[in-house]
Amino acid sequence: MSQFDVVVIGAGPGGYVAAIRAAQLGLKTACVDAFKGKDGKPALGGTCLNVGCIPSKALLQSSEHFHALSHDFADHGISVKGASFDTAKMIERKDGIVSKLTGGIGMLFKKNKVTSLHGLGRLAGREGEKWRIEVADGDKVETIEASHVIVATGSRPRQLPQAPVDNVTVLDNEGALNLSAVPKRLGVIGAGVIGLEMGSVWKRLGAEVTILEAAPVFLAAADQQIAKEAFKTLTKDTGLDIRMGVKIGDVKVGKTVSVAFEADGKAESLTFDKLIVSIGRVPNTDGLNAAGVGLQTDERGFIVVDEHCHTNLPNVWAVGDVVRGPMLAHKASEEGVAVAERIAGQKPHIDFNTIPWVIYTSPEIAWVGKTEEQLKAEGVEYKKGSSGFMANGRALGLGQAKGSVKILADAKTDRILGMHVIGPMASELVTEGVVAMEFKASSEDIGRIVHAHPSLSEVVHEAALAADKRALHG
């Protein structure tokens, strides 16, 4: 029986990073994963690399290029006639990127001497100081032992009972990434990250997209000033038909999908060629044998952990989507690194207050820290500064001058409490807010830092100045 210091169950962003870091620290490490790619072969990287973060960004970029070619290039004096796109080629390009990155993880495993085992990992019990893990790959079952186990099994799409996913007509995130043709009428249930991003992709390629969202408030987790600006842009400019406060009723699936719903007290029904169900995700613990070994989970199925990601069982840890906190790939990775370092005797630190959020629509939406709504609810006295991209030379040159940056700071200490961005490259700009908050910086600190000209980051600089009532261009 093979023995390891650490066995990681799951090779997504939390698991594979944890395995690599553990191996770097001199721990004999194995990583167990059961995911298979479109070709039926084992594929590392979990949901994020295979059917989530990475492929969705590839398609978003392709659709944005086509939209720019069809609508925006004329403003640059560039004329194009008869522009067309090849859906199959777009999907092929996306798949190529996925294959490159998943294959890269395999190379990293070899480089760092991580043993990669394909199959479903199951906690089989504890004997002495060792945990036994069964790895089932079809009819083949192998048992290994480990001193420490890191559970990083991720999450799966939440199902809508009346609309079971078949990835032919009713799609989850995986099906939405692999459409062979642009549907004329596309329905999306859920106005979260996946719904907005996938809706944007297929809208730019020609689909009529209607998004049905149960919540009464758009992007409730985001700062509402930014959320309102995003709603206006996504509906007016992108052309998404977003309906809030919707109660989904019967869903009838045939060659098309008919969705009955209630909105504003009125009963309605819409028919779509394809329907994407994106109503959130649930922790993936099926087959782990949590109950059998006494691994504690909460009422929603999340594995219960302390602030160090340690479970109720000795030397069993859990990270990523399967535990509390935001379901974000970068959060999972940092937890994985931290656990590996704790096992090795180090004392790492993660500040959950400085984890950035990003939605890769056009324009992008990103934020870190507290929203205005949260600060008001907590009774925190704050000040704010905002600045738009409309007066930014770099944004105007890019033809992407919509959006704004908002910085929230403590009214007394000036310490930055939150930064919120909607605009070009918001996913990159928000990092300045993350770094500033990690180092307990003030809005004045950002205001005193020299920002390159012309650059998009000048809008961050201007927002910081505005928080101190000394904006130069506002």
UniProtKB/TrEMBL annotation:
Superkingdom of this protein's organism: Bacteria
A biological process term (GO) from this entry: 2-oxoglutarate metabolic process
Catalytic activity field: N(6)-[(R)-dihydrolipoyl]-L-lysyl-[protein] + NAD(+) = N(6)-[(R)-lipoyl]-L-lysyl-[protein] + NADH + H(+)
Domain Pyridine nucleotide-disulphide oxidoreductase dimerisation: 355-464
EC number(s) per entry: 1.8.1.4
GO MF annotation: an example: flavin adenine dinucleotide binding
Location relative to the cell: Cytoplasm
Protein's recorded name: Dihydrolipoyl dehydrogenase
Native species: Paludibacterium paludis
